[in-house]
Amino acid sequence: MSERRGPVLVMGVSGAGKSTVARGLAERLGGVYVDADDLHPEENVATMARGEPLTDALRWGWLDLVAKAMAETEPFAVVACSALKRAYRDRLRAHLGPFPIIYLDGDRALLRERMSRREGHYMPVSLLDSQLQTLEPPGPDEDAIAVSVAPSPDEIIATALTQLSSRLQGGPDGSGQADHTPRRTS
Q1: CA angle in degrees (0–180, nearest 5) for 130-122-104
Q2: Quick one: 32 exposed, middle or buried, by C-beta within 10 A (0-12, 13-18, 19+)?
Q3: Mean pLDDT, range 50-59, rounded to an integer
Q4: C-alpha closest to that of 26 among 3, 8, 5, 38
Q5: Which of 89, 177, 176, 165 is nearest to 79 (CA)?
Q6: In Å, how far are 8, 35, 45 from 168, measured between CA atoms?
Q7: Residue 186 burial (CB < 10 Å; 0-12/13-18/19+)?
Q8: Please, are residues 156 and 162 in contact by the beta-carbon 8 Å criterion?
């Protein structure tokens, strides 16, 4: 199942499990896992490490690098990227056109608990609230698949894969296009 296709975006706030889910989807779909965090310029990493949220000005160049990686990765990329605002996802789409989005959705307490268990990550727990304030969940026209992060990682990946596969293999009418009805699973 590793034919060339467009990239897949796995988005959500820090602690949602983007890396785990994107890695699992890439493995099962035959794509290549790309972590957008690895593409942050040093200035962005230093800003976050100081406990300061990134400004839009700091994000634009980074998002352009993410779009480039999404476009150039063969056979296709499955990207873990926060993409918190509609404008950020629009910037990616301006470079790439439409692509599937897996939106990892979870409540603050669960996300905070997960972040507090991480070791060696530059994103401090203190930035979760600013991420949640910044978050603009995908709108119906973005055709995102919303998946709860409450189940186990394997269940989250399986749910995302099932929903994504049905869209990639024909959609509801066999056209290969999704029906643009937002769905929340799990």
Answers
A1: 55
A2: middle
A3: 88
A4: 8
A5: 89
A6: 11, 22, 35
A7: middle
A8: no
Note the pTM of the prediction, 2 decimals.
0.82
pLDDT band at 169 (very low <50, low <70, confident <90, very high): low
- SS3 category, 93: helix
Residue 167 pLDDT grade (very low, low, confident, very high; cuts 50, 70, 90): confident
**DSSP output for 98-146:** ---EEEEE--HHHHHHHHHH--S-SS-GGGHHHHHHH--PPPGGGTEEE
Question: What's the pLDDT band for 32 if we cut at 50, 70, 90?
Answer: very high
Residues 121-148: tens digit of each pLDDT: 445 555 667 777 888 999 999 989 999 9
Tokens of 38: 């690895």
Query: What amino acid is encoded at 48 in this protein?
Result: M
Closest CA to 164 of 3, 22, 12: 22
Taking the C-alpha atoms of residue 164 and residue 160, their distance in angstroms, rounded to an integer, is 6
